[in-house]
Amino acid sequence: MATPFETLNESSKEFANTAMKSVSALADGLHTIAHEAADYSKRSFEESSALIEKLATTKSPEQIFETHSVFSKKAYEAFVAQATKFGELYADLAKEAYKPYEAAVAKVTK
Fold first, then answer.
1. CA gyration radius, the chain
2. How far apart are CA 60 and CA 75, in angstroms?
3. Is the pLDDT of residue 10 over 90?
4. Does residue 102 contact residue 25 with C-beta atoms inside 8 Å?
5. CB contact at 8 A, 15 and 104
């Protein structure tokens, strides 16, 4: 039979391992989100720069309005898609960070 000290020691090791797995999942998820944000920012900047170049060569106000309208529609659609993707990434992050604790919680609630 294990002594209370041995039981406490084993529980502490399990908690530390669980915490490290959770922190690792959290770090990986945040890295993925940061990378995705950087990619989105880069694409957005490039598209905005291309718009400015295109507007600079446009002669008529109608063409300027049309060019800007097309750009605005694309930018809005890209933003909504990116926001959806970020939502999914954050949901996945929460699931992965909590996953190591599921076994511990199940063990305690039995």
1. 25
2. 22
3. no
4. no
5. yes
pLDDT tens figures, 82-98: 999 999 999 999 999 88
> What per-residue string of b and e applies to 12-40 under the rule 16 or more CB within 10 Å gives b?
eeeeeebeeebeebeeebeeebeeeeeeb
CB 29 within 8 A of CB 93: yes
Torsion of CA 18, 3, 1, 13, to 10 degrees: 10
Q: What's the predicted TM-score (pTM) here?
A: 0.78
pLDDT tens column, 33-65: 999 999 999 999 999 999 999 999 988 999 999
